[in-house]
Structure formats: structure tokens, C-alpha cells
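Batch job 17 of 40 flagged for manual review because the log was empty.
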Amino acid sequence: MTDGATPWAIQAPDVRRIIHVDMDAFYASVEQRDNPALRGRPVAVGGDRLRGVVAAASYEARRFGVRSAMPSVIARRKCPELVFVPPRFDVYRAVSARIHQIFARYTPLIQPLSLDEAYLDVTHPLLPRGSATEIAREIRATIRAETGLCASAGVSYNKFLAKLASDHRKPDGLYVITPRHGAEFVADLPVERFHGIGPATAARMHALGIHTGRDLRARTLEDLARHFGKVAAFYHGVARGVDHRPVESDRPRKSLGTERTFEHDLYEWSDMAAPMTDMCQRVWHGCERRDLTGRTVTIKIKYNDFRQIVRASTLMQPVATAQELSAHALGLLRGCFPPERGVRLLGVVVSTLLPRAQVKVQQLALALGPQSPDSVSIAGSGVGRRSAGR
């Protein structure tokens, strides 16, 4: 383990070089950058209201125990001096796009995880550099120079360890886990620190006497499979510092959605139908910007006792308009009326995504119906030319 600049300069060519870049307190840092009066103060991005939730917290706020996804009322209780700032997602997306342009100077193999973090495979970088560590150091310096923001980076030979490494020296840190030290680094980590092991799985592991990477490594694959099913192979590998997952630069998006928490409990249909329709409009706008549609519509309802239900419908034909999406979502919502308790949150998601251009081609083919061989050839050629030109 090192933060030096030479760990892979002489490594075998088949050793992958992976960087995980994670922006430090991204949303809050953007707000502090753009408003000097917020610098050095505890800042929460989110709603300062009874039902508000913290979307992000500055490091000054984190010292008081304020965390993302925490109800605003609890955050305020932990830190009375907390400054709440409404989120500006358009700004965050613009900054994120600029950061990804910096990544693209070094490699085309970029896998975004969110607006503020990504994996980069720099095994064969676009710019000649002595090591992956040197590239990570240069990327961090460039981000700071061009955006005024700090990023932490982890460098390793696989994605699992690179992400662990980026967490190790936050904020504004750089850490490297070499192939020689990967298994050693993992051995003494609590399983809660393993990405891919959530609280419920960690509790199950604790019940089995598995508390650290070393404990996990002591279990056979067969034993883990009995308790954890298909994901056992992943646990078995990462406990030994092994992760063969590639950086997937063209991984397709699986869903688009949004949700809203209300300041007061909702009971009436008229109070829920309007925000659900508005959310459908926003989700469809996101689909149009990405030229996507989908066949599965899902709604989420969270009651005032925090119990949550999900209802979904997979359609024969993909959604074609915002009005159609609203009709399906409202139909699912209608099936949950009258509500068992007051509703504090609603959400809607479109999944089973596919390109809208593909749907148009399929619809045109259906509209044309059976054709003679000559006419099919002409229509097929025309459609093909239009699709290729999109």
C-alpha cells in the first residue's frame, strides 16, 4: 500500500490499472464554492422543513453527525448552526459533465456511478504517464484547477479495491493498493466496509461469526452459497482481493425515476394525483432528453409509519407520451386507494428501457403490415437509412 507514483511502472501488462474518483461532499462543495459566505460553515443541501431530507452535507456538518438521507429535523437537532441550501441539480450536472471531460482526456473507459463518482480503466491510457498513480494525481489537480473542487482517488488493480482506496484518505486524498497488498488490505476490514454488503447482509454475516475480511476468507464458496446464494462468489472473491468486473463504459441505463416527500400527510386522491402527474411529466422529460422509453411503470408509496409499498406494471407496448405514463402511474395509484395510513412520499419509475428510435421502427413495420417482397425491400432500406442518420 502506497501513495507513491511508481507502483505499476514495471508491472506485468495484464495487470489492470483502475482509478476510482469520488468528489468530496460534491453538492455541498459546489454550494460553498459558489457562495463564499458558506465556506467553513456546516452546510446541508436539502429541504429545511419538517419532512425535508438532507441530500448532502459538508464536512463541517459531518463533524456533528449530519449525513445524507437524514431527516432535516434530526440534522438540525444535531447541528443547530446548520445552513440549509436548496439543491441545484442543473448546476451539479453541468459540473459533473466538465469533470467527465477531464476523465476523457486520459481514457475512453469511464463508468459513471453517479454525478460525483466514476471508475476509470487506465491500463492503456490515452496520454503517456509513468503509472496509474501519476494519472490519478494529475486528474485531481486538474479538477481542482478547472472547477475549484476537491476529489479523492483510489488506485488499484480492480474496482472493489479502487473504491475502498478512495474512501481511505478522504477528503482530498489519494491512496493506492497494489497487487501485492490487496488481500492484506481486505483482511482486517469490517465487512460493513465492503461495497456490496449492506446493513442487512452484514447482520446476517455477524450471526454466522463473520465480522472481518479474514473471517469471510475462512469460509468456503459452498458454505457462502448456502447462506447467500449467487452473490456468494463475489464475497468469496473480494475477501481475497479478487474482483474481475470490468469497467463498463457503455453500460445501459436501467431506469429513470423521481420521488417527492410531502410536508404533510396526504389522504385524498386529489392531493396525490396532481404531484404524481407532475412527477410523470418530469420523468418523461428525462426520457425524451435521452431518447429513451420503457415498458415497465413502477410507483412507490411510503406511509407515515415509514412502511413502503411498490406497485409495477409491465406493458405490452412501450410508453409513448407523458400523458400515457401518467395514466399508467395513476392507475397503479388508484389501486392503492383508500390509503391505509397517511402518505408521506410518492415516487414513479420507468424501467425496461429501450431507444425510442427502435420503437418507431417497430411501429412503422407494424403499420406497413404484410408487403410484397419488392415493397418490403424498399421500406426496409428507407427505415434503415433514417435510423442510421439519427
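Reviewer: the log was empty due to a logging misconfiguration, but the result itself is present. The chain has three domains: 1-180, 184-238, 256-359. Unflagging and moving on to job 18.
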